[in-house]
Design brief:
heterodimer; A: 622 residues; alpha/beta; Rossmann fold; Transcription Regulator spoIIAA; 22 helices; 19 strands; B: 211 residues; alpha+beta; Alpha-Beta Plaits; 4 helices; 10 strands
Chain lengths: 622, 211
């Protein structure tokens, strides 16, 4: 492989944060002898990508295979992208500093919709054809994965194959298939045909895209072209998760990354059933690792990395049946050693706060809670399963235990939201403020701070709210202003997201293959790093969509009938469309649905249809 | 005061190769993690935010390597310096390899101020075509404020060229230091054939050594 290091090094002296491009971190793996070479790409800068757990897990999985090497690549910062183009330096991997185009296969994580133009920036900077259809036999196989592949259609033409769901097993299968057939001299088309038959793999080029009328009539937007190509692509689940070691070897970066600490994944899945939440719907069933497994992983991980902080990660860490035991054991182990233990999200009740207290030590900065909606009616409709008593119990516990700040996450524009619900956000925040004030000594009250953060609801694929439209940007701002004007206390501050990026997310999350052209046009017009506020180029998107005659707002704001077949119905996360429809109806009636990890089965389809089961370390209590 | 006196150690290491491009903060973080990986009985401060009792030598700019860099660390129990060196070497990355560990008293000047005179070596691809003089002043920007520093105030002795290698010594002062990378850059600018290969602090002098 070509080594670009000398050319790169010549540019690094005059670039910001060269540590992004250096490699040589502690514990990185380099297998120069491996015949088959794979590169895992995170389409954003090192600081974000190096912290990504999928990248870490998948690189380790591929490196464990004989004769296979996995390297890492990230997009350089945007100004360095320009420098590289001007110097004719292609995008490179870190370990070999080799051009991406020389790899046998590359994997790109699509972790959120706003990464769309960065995928094109990655491919273009790497000198790889943007479109799967134009790639020759010599080009690397371009594999997509990650949360956004539950609706892969907006990205369909840029990828050769998408792997749906958890990649631990399936990525290896795809690469082995590719390697064997490539070695035997099989043409690209034949290899893609074989990969399309591996469970969890979607090769978009092997399907005809139907028009809307046909899709609604036939119940699917795609039609397989050829024998043996599945009609429905079911997500893959890493079945050995619960019993596999929670210690996942990790690289210790020099550059400060987001979440710059040891991450130990303690459980997968969340079945609380919040109706807006895609992660909860697509990552079922719940699978917990045991306390022994977690504690030994933390001990081993801290010893091997030298980190001073460990985070017990998952979608809802305080729901782990042995979380109290885990935290108590870790506290004993690391008392007075300057090691911090953190859990990423707090459950909104007294138990959640007591768990937060176990990890906080003496330093009590801020606590974050997510009531999501301002009134009980709306919280029931979205199945948040949090009552006002829970919220106040959490607040009382937090502020009497020494916390002074609290951040509250809300969503604006949830289906069926009324002005009363919006004003309810302000009202709830005020009452939380009053409770917090009462729990504090008078001399402490001056330090009391409450932050209300309002995100705009984005309808996500494979959730009960996938048929619901987003509210318009103007309406979103009106509702934010309603929250702001309804607040009296100066100790409460309101933050909100830019509706323009949320609109784009809504457009891309439910869009079909027509989105690919919009993404490409936007990128041609200069859009990239859309998730970076300072880089977001709304104009580029507006012009791109207009040139194709596509109304982004109209698509994002459209509410479909519940029998409407959405453009990704052929992708299955196990949760049936019937369950999602039933949940949408229950939302309308204000009926809540229990968490099946501690109550009865809700018949979502995952365990029954995919032959999976909930795996708990101990019995959970509601 | 700690219940038991801590054992103060000074650790010398190199900052070389591509890792010369690390910033001081990145370097500090990497060294702290190295000490933790070595499983040494490092001391931890008391208070709301306990952290390792470690102190770093004077900072090098991004892109400048060092042959004799150092940091001080306190241990709660005695470990023979050679054992500390061995333990650190096992868990150090190649380009930040430790080279020596010495016990130091708790009264010696901190690593960051112990060596006020630094000897630098700049290697270029070829020798300059004519004699080059250092600029009279260097403008440094700190916290968006421009400050003009007189080079002669910092330079000790002459700048010596030997073929394509330039060697010189700079004082660091309590009021601040001259940015060595800017100094070399401004010298190199005078001859467009000069292309820098590496810039390294090859030695640091303690005051005692100079007396």
């Amino acid at each position: 492989m070509t080594n670009l290091w000398l050319r790169l090094a010549a540019l690094l002296r005059n670039t910001q944060r060269p540590s992004r491009y250096l490699n040589h971190e502690w514990a990185c793996t380099y297998k120069p002898e491996a015949a088959y070479r794979f590169c895992m790409v995170y389409p954003d800068t090192y600081e974000l990508g190096q912290a990504n757990q999928a990248l870490r897990i998948l690189c380790n999985a591929v490196n464990r295979q004989e004769g296979m090497a996995a390297e890492r690549a990230f997009l350089p910062a945007h100004d360095f992208c320009d420098t590289m183009r001007a110097e004719g330096l292609p995008l490179f991997s870190l370990e070999s500093c080799a051009p991406l185009a020389e790899f046998d296969a590359i994997g790109i994580t699509i972790s959120h919709e706003l990464a769309a133009t960065n995928i094109l920036e990655t491919l273009d900077l790497a000198g790889i054809e943007l479109h799967s259809a134009k790639r020759t036999d010599a080009a690397p196989l371009v594999i997509g994965g990650g949360p956004c592949t539950f609706n892969p259609e907006p990205f369909w033409s840029f990828f050769d194959v998408f792997v749906i769901g958890e990649g631990e097993d399936v990525l290896g299968e795809v690469l082995q298939c590719h390697r064997t057939m490539k070695d035997a001299g099989a043409p690209r088309g034949e290899i893609l045909h074989a990969i399309a038959q591996i469970a969890g793999c979607y090769v978009p080029a092997l399907y005809r895209w139907c028009d809307e009328e046909e899709a609604q009539r036939c119940g699917s937007w795609i039609e397989p072209l050829g024998e043996g190509i599945p009609r429905v692509i079911e997500k893959r689940v890493f079945e050995g998760f619960a019993t596999s070691s929670a210690w996942e070897p990790c690289i210790v970066p020099f550059a400060e990354t987001v979440h710059d600490r040891l991450n130990v994944e303690i459980l997968r899945g969340c079945s609380r059933g919040c109706r807006f939440c895609q992660a909860g719907m697509v990552s079922r069933p719940v699978r917990e690792r045991s306390a022994d497994n977690i504690v030994s992983a933390v001990v081993e991980g801290l010893a091997q990395t030298g980190y001073d902080e460990v985070s017990l990660t998952s979608l809802s860490s305080t729901d782990h049946s042995q979380i109290a035991l885990v935290l108590e054991r870790l506290n004993r182990e690391y008392q007075d050693k300057g090691i911090r233990i953190s859990i990423p999200s707090q459950r909104m009740d007294a138990f959640g706060v007591s768990m937060a207290g176990l990890v906080a030590g003496q330093k009590r900065g801020g606590l974050t809670f997510a009531p999501e909606a301002g009134t009980q009616r709306l919280r029931d409709a979205i199945n948040k399963n949090v009552t006002e008593e829970d919220i106040f119990a959490a607040v009382d516990a937090a502020f009497s235990a020494g916390w002074r700040h609290c951040k509250l996450y809300f969503m604006i524009g949830l289906p069926d939201e009324t002005d009363e619900d919006v004003a309810g956000i302000a009202d709830l925040a005020e009452r939380i403020y009053d409770r917090a004030k009462a729990a504090l000594l008078p001399q402490m009250r001056g330090a009391l701070k409450i932050t209300v953060s309002c995100a705009l609801f984005v309808p996500k694929p494979l959730t009960p709210f996938q048929w619901d439209g987003q509210i318009s940007s103007e309406e979103a701002l009106r509702r934010v202003n309603l929250v702001r004007s309804s607040l009296r206390s100066r100790a409460i501050t309101v933050h909100w997201h830019d509706p323009a990026t949320s609109l784009l997310e809504a457009f891309l999350s439910r869009g079909g293959r027509e989105c690919a052209d919009v993404i490409e046009q936007a990128w041609i017009n200069g859009a990239r790093f859309d998730a970076w506020t300072e880089c977001f180029n709304k104009d580029a998107w507006d012009k791109g969509a207009a040139s194709l005659g596509i109304d982004v707002a109209c698509a994002a704001e459209h509410t479909y009938e519940l029998n409407y077949v959405l453009p990704y119905t052929h992708i299955s996360a196990g949760v049936t469309q019937d369950f999602l429809r039933a949940e949408r109806n229950r939302a309308e009636n204000g009926d809540v649905t229990c968490d099946c990890s501690c109550a009865a089965c809700t018949d979502c389809g995952v365990c029954t249809d995919m032959n999976l089961k909930i795996e708990l370390a101990e019995v959970r209590h509601a | 005061m700690p219940e038991h006196p801590h054992f103060h150690l000074r650790v010398f290491f190199q900052k070389k190769g591509r890792l010369a491009l690390l910033s001081h903060l990145e370097l500090a973080r990497a060294l702290e993690r190295t000490v933790r990986r070595a499983a040494l009985p490092y001391a931890v401060s008391a208070g709301f935010s306990p952290h390792m009792k470690i102190a770093f030598g004077s900072a090098l700019p991004v892109g400048v390597g060092g042959d004799e860099e150092c940091f001080d660390v306190q241990l709660t129990s005695y470990v023979a310096p050679e054992k500390v060196l061995e333990a650190l070497a096992r868990v150090s990355v190649g380009d930040l390899m430790v080279s020596a560990v010495y016990p130091i008293g708790n009264k010696v000047p901190a690593a960051s101020v112990a060596y006020p005179l630094s000897v630098y070596e700049a290697k270029f691809f070829c020798a300059p075509r004519r004699a080059l003089l250092p600029p009279e002043t260097i403008t440094v920007v700190r916290k968006s404020k421009e400050k003009e520093l007189v080079v002669a105030d910092f330079l000790e002795g002459d700048m010596l060229w030997e073929d394509a290698t330039l060697t010189f010594s700079l004082w660091s002062k309590p009021t601040g230091s001259l940015r060595v990378d800017l100094l070399v850059e401004s010298i190199a600018k005078q001859d467009e054939t000069l292309e820098l290969i590496s810039l390294t602090r090859i030695h640091q002098h303690a005051l005692l050594n100079l007396l």
